[in-house]
Amino acid sequence: MKILICCLTMLVMLSGCASQVRTEYDAATDFGPYKRFTWVAPEVREIDDPILDSELLTDRVRAAVTAVLTERGFAEVAAGAEPGADFFITYHTASKEKLRSSPFSVGIGYGHYYGRWGHSVLFDGPDIRSYEEGVLILDVINCSQNKLVWRGWDTSLVNQRNYSVTAVREAVEQILAEFPPGRVNR
Predict the structure, then answer these.
(1) How many CB atoms lie within 10 A of CB 98?
(2) What's 155's domain CATH number?
(3) Confidence category of residue 6, pLDDT binned at 50, 70, 90
(4) What is the residue range of the signal peptide feature (predicted)?
(5) Residue 153 is assigned to a structural domain of this protein
(6) Is the bond preceding 50 in cis, omega lying within 30 degrees of 0?
């Protein structure tokens, strides 16, 4: 019974770490003609978090987005090239400190004492921890109307511990799995 409770507790704790990918889009937009894209620079803003506002992260996000879109049959074109892009793409990051609480915490211990092995499970009161939640946002903007038509975001990526090339690529793949809306194995 104790092992079952411990396993369930760990499962609940790990589910809180799961990636949270969401999307929104303009339902009136026909994404079928979208074949070519170009990058547009995000708005210049005051640096809130030097970890997130870095050229390293910019290069990683741009490389991952370009690779994923290219693998899906989209073509990157230079700004001002003919024929022009059908859509612009850009990204934003944000982070904030959040609190995670659990009604109880569990400790498990094993030990050796006078030739015998033993274990114990300790249940304690509420457990409150702070953590950094980062958001990677990808925006698709219609070139002819200069209008945001699709937005996808992942709330698990960007923090000091996991904005590696691999983590960025995985987050971008998860976000762009929903682009374009209604995509059938493009």
Answers:
(1) 11
(2) 3.30.160.670
(3) very low
(4) 1-18
(5) yes
(6) no
